[in-house]
Automatic annotation (TrEMBL):
This is Protein kish. InterPro entries: KISH_domain (IPR051523), Ksh1 (IPR009653). The lineage of its organism: Eukaryota, Viridiplantae, Streptophyta, Embryophyta, Tracheophyta. The chain crosses the membrane at residues 59-80, 108-125. GO terms for cellular component: Golgi membrane. Residues 41-51 have a biased composition (Pro residues).
Amino acid sequence: MANTTRWAQHPPSDLNPTGREEAKRPTSSPRSVPRRRRPPSLAPRRPPPASSSPDPMSALFNFHSFVTVVLLLICTCTFLKMHFPSLLVRRTGFRGFFWKAARIGERLSPWVAMGCSVMGISIIFY
């Protein structure tokens, strides 16, 4: 008992505090030097994950998406003007833009319907 107390105070060099023998590593080994981690800014970056679409652009720079957004805007404004006419009464300012889109939908409804059909088919198949 007194022997273990002495070891707890001053353990021998070949035993660790738990009393088990350790294999000594050579001091010239490269593993004896701790590795330093690079700062996050210098760490090698992983490539971004591949997106499902071949061309991840904004709707403003991709013509196909731009035409889809414009057609949806025209159809939505026309629908809102038909069901809630008081929303799009003003012809100037910010609301005037939506009033004009609704007017295009009213006057050119066969062409807008054809454009929506073509865009729907092209989105489904392409």
